[in-house]
Amino acid sequence: MVGSIQAPCDANIIRATPAFPVALTQKRKRLTLAATILGSSMAFIDGSVVNIALPAIQQALHADAASTQWIVNGYLLLLGALVLVGGSAADLYGRRRIFLVGVGLFTAASIACALSPDITVLVVSRAVQGVGAALLTPASLAMLGATFDEHERSHAIGIWAGAGALTMAAGPLLGGWLVDQVSWRAIFLLNVPLAVAAAGLAAGFACESRDPEAKSLDLSGAVTIAIGLAALTRGLGAIPASGFHDKTVLGALGVGVAFLAAFVAIEARSGERAMMPLSFYRSRNFSGTNTLTLLLYFAFGGALYYLPFGLIRLGGYSATEAGAALLPLALILGFGASFAGRFADRFGPRLPLTIGPIILAGGLAMLAFVDLRESYWIGVFPAICVMAVGMTMTVPPLTSTVMASVGEARAGIASGVNNAIARVAGLLAVAAFGAVLFASFSQHLVGLPPARANEALNMVLAGQAGVAEGVRVAFDRALQTVMMVAAFCAMLGGIAGALSIRPISPESARSNT
Fold first, then answer.
1. Could you tell me which residue ranges the Major facilitator superfamily (MFS) profile domain spans (predicted)?
2. Which of 353, 413, 434, 498 has a 20 to 30 A CA-CA distance from 195?
3. What percent of the chain has pLDDT over 90?
């Protein structure tokens, strides 16, 4: 990390010098790494465990489908809109300080989630969690960059990423067990002991650091994109209850598009302060990989949101069994990344960025034709494994290609933009696939008015008794449609990779930016 310098911790702020003037002890480095792993694990676990608990939450709080979507969307909205600002704030005000603020905010919001008396309080608390995650996640990586020198940094980040993959793997299984044996509220209290340990280690052993060249925050851009995404999500989420031609829906979608256009204009004028420098898009590889990212995570995020509802409501899975059903996905992702990286090094990024999304599309298409009531091992398991192989082939070369496309000096910003786009894709997918689910569900219940169809869909999702077999079959068909749309989007991602990704030299990367 350019400009990040080591110094004794009692000096508080690390000042700019060409090298690391004081070497930290290995013990202090290891404990700083542990602090970042524990802090980031809260966000990783939270992101993987909440989907498993959604059916139970919807039933317990008597929420409709649109409100339930906002349990995920509120979190992703603030995380996606603010993660780049969080990274800038860490560089400007101190990485350890922002990390601790993020951990504290995330923990307080987690406790509020666990104590929520109704869906409104839960959604607001989840949004605050998103703000905390937007601060602590980039700050944790920045702390690693400031703690480890260039010879140790890659290894440290590899350990951080590997630990994140393992926590993501354990999250759904542990969360499902807590939902079945304790309560859905317990999944949010998982964060409290992790937060106490992370904050204690960071405060006691991590050194403070800043980037002396850091610019002021692009708050206008962050606020504008947050409003734009919120309006788009609100409009898409309201379609099941209000219909496609409702004035409220059209107005919300119009406001969303207008604010996103305003965001582009603000970024064009912000120059070096921009949270998303538009000059990056002169790079064909940067534009192509981010288009692929949008389509890939749109397909993947939307499918994973609705799959647990299918497993639990149609397949009769318990929450624990639904969490275990997704375990192969995280394990293959976690342990296959190094192989995928070597494959990309040997054959170049274009091949895996073409084949990977297409394999993912195949896995999603398999899910569309699986009978969720049949044996897991001959139905869901093969499809999950194919999806995992596709994602594993895609993610490592996707990240490295994004960073290489703009040159080493600005690779961190490019990676942050790509990460934000992945979060936004998941946010939009939940709302858009909700509209697809409702449209297909209504089509299979011929003659039922939209309001009655929406009521019937909410009954299925909430697991209410007395649901007619015809309604259950309509939900099954609608879920198949969602998986096929997801497969189509993943396929488009593979096409984008084939058409846009090219070998790039460091000289051409610098000239693009």
1. 32-505
2. 413
3. 35
Looking at the structure, do residues 244 and 362 belong to the same domain, yes or no?
no
- pLDDT at residue 377 in the model: 94
Question: Which tokens belong to 78?
Answer: 């603030």
What gap in Å lies between CA 401 and CA 385, rounded to an integer? 25
Rounded to the nearest 5 degrees, what angle is found at the Cα of 273, between the Cα atoms of 272 and 275? 110
Rounded Cα distance, 360 and 387, in Å: 4
pLDDT greater at residue 47 or residue 133: 133
Cβ contact 404:285 at 8 Å? yes
Q: What is the pLDDT of residue 509?
A: 44
Give the SS3 label for residue 48: helix
Amino acid at 300: F
CA nearest 79: which of 230, 213, 235? 230
pLDDT digits (tens, 9 = 90+) for 288-303: 999 999 999 999 999 9
DSSP string, 92-106: HH-HHHHHHHHHHHH
Q: Domain range spanning residue 286?
A: 282-513
* Mean model confidence pLDDT for the chain: 83
Tokens of 211: 């980037």
pLDDT confidence of residue 262: 93
CA 239/CA 248 separation, integer angstroms: 9
Long-range CB contact pairs, 277-280, < 8 A, 24+:
277/410, 277/413, 277/513, 279/512, 279/513, 280/405, 280/406, 280/410, 280/413, 280/414, 280/417, 280/512, 280/513
Three-state DSSP state, 484: helix
Q: Residue 506 above 50 pLDDT?
A: no
Give me the number of domains the chain comprises: 3
Task: Kindly state whether residues 224 and 206 are assigned to the same domain.
Answer: no
